[in-house]
Design brief:
This protein is mostly helical and 306 residues long. It contains twelve helices and no strands. Helices cover 71% and strands 0% of the residues. The chain is globular, with a radius of gyration of 25 Å. It is a multi-pass membrane protein.
Length: 306
């Protein structure tokens, strides 16, 4: 019997149940790896705490009226106590309440800056990496131009032109946040587009949008998710930095950077005024960075093997 006489069997296609079971096993592995890292769990706990404060802040704040500009000069600059665990500010407002409600401001700042940065950078990175040629050269040269100037300095210039305020601060940071995503996604796209399954789809006549949507973008999601989780903390820190120099949120809006900006004039006698907002920024940025490290460890097999 020759090889031509042998029956040809079609490859078995996994059933939906088998694919579902495989997905469950994979996510269980991810959860096991994540739970085995103390730093990752600490980051997750800090981020969850931050999200709880951001979502339920007005309900959890012991003195919600102090977050809207209430003045109580009889309680001015009180040190931490049972009634005011974080003390009060120069207007007699409870600092703990302002920090809790300020978490919501920090959350939407981080989400908008990161979302706009990814929304601009990811499509440009995919287009540059997949098409190449003149298109890639133009996109990457513009990206290099933005990266040649420190992002915070460029944002400072934009805010100075637009005028101080939390909205202009977010706009400025969003406009300088996208180059990092272009670089990241462009390099990933360059490697993915040479894979056999992409070449096969192209040879079978698949359209470019279909290839980008079904093959390129899904394979770029892992580094995008990791970068976005870390960028949340850095976006909050950058907005707080602009608020610290007086270009961000204005009172009575509770924003951590602007609180520290006002509190620095009361150092060192009234130390609690600047300590607790600064601690809130530190713990939030730390939480997102640790969470990003944990996500990278479980989503990137190469990082686990090192």
């Amino acid at each position: 019997m020759t090889s031509a006489d042998l029956p040809v069997t079609a490859p078995e296609i996994p059933s939906f149940r088998e694919r579902h079971a495989s997905t469950i096993r994979q996510w269980r592995l991810y959860a096991h790896l994540f739970a085995g890292s103390f730093s990752s769990m600490l980051g997750l706990a800090l981020v969850v705490l931050f999200l709880i404060l951001a979502i339920f802040g007005p309900v959890l704040a012991p003195y919600p009226e102090d977050t809207t500009g209430a003045v109580n000069l009889s309680q001015r600059l009180l040190s931490p106590s049972l009634a005011h665990p974080f003390g009060t500010d120069e207007m007699g407002a409870d600092i703990l309440s302002r920090i809790i409600v300020g978490a919501r401001t920090s959350l939407w700042i981080g989400l908008i800056i990161t979302g706009v940065g990814a929304g601009i950078g990811v499509p440009l990175g995919i287009i540059a990496g997949y098409h190449g040629g003149v298109t890639r050269a133009v996109i990457m040269r513009v990206t290099d131009l933005f990266l040649s100037v420190p992002g915070l300095a460029l944002a400072l210039t934009i805010v100075a032109a637009l005028g101080p305020g939390i909205t202009n601060c977010v706009i400025a940071l969003s406009l300088v946040w996208w180059p990092g995503y272009v670089r990241l996604v462009e390099s990933k796209t360059l490697s993915v587009k040479e894979e056999l399954y992409v070449e096969s789809a192209r040879a079978l006549g698949a359209s470019t949008p279909w290839i980008l949507r079904r093959h390129i973008l899904p394979n770029c999601l892992t580094p995008i998710i990791v970068k976005a989780s870390m960028d949340m903390g850095m976006a909050i820190l950058s907005a707080a930095s602009l608020g610290f120099i007086g270009l961000g949120a204005k009172p009575p809006l509770p924003e951590w950077g602007s609180m520290i900006s006002v509190a620095r004039t009361y150092m060192p006698d009234w130390w609690w005024y600047s300590l607790f907002p600064g601690l809130a920024i530190f713990l939030t940025v730390l939480g997102f960075n640790l969470l990003g490290d944990g996500l990278r460890d479980i989503l990137d097999p190469r990082s686990r093997s090192r």
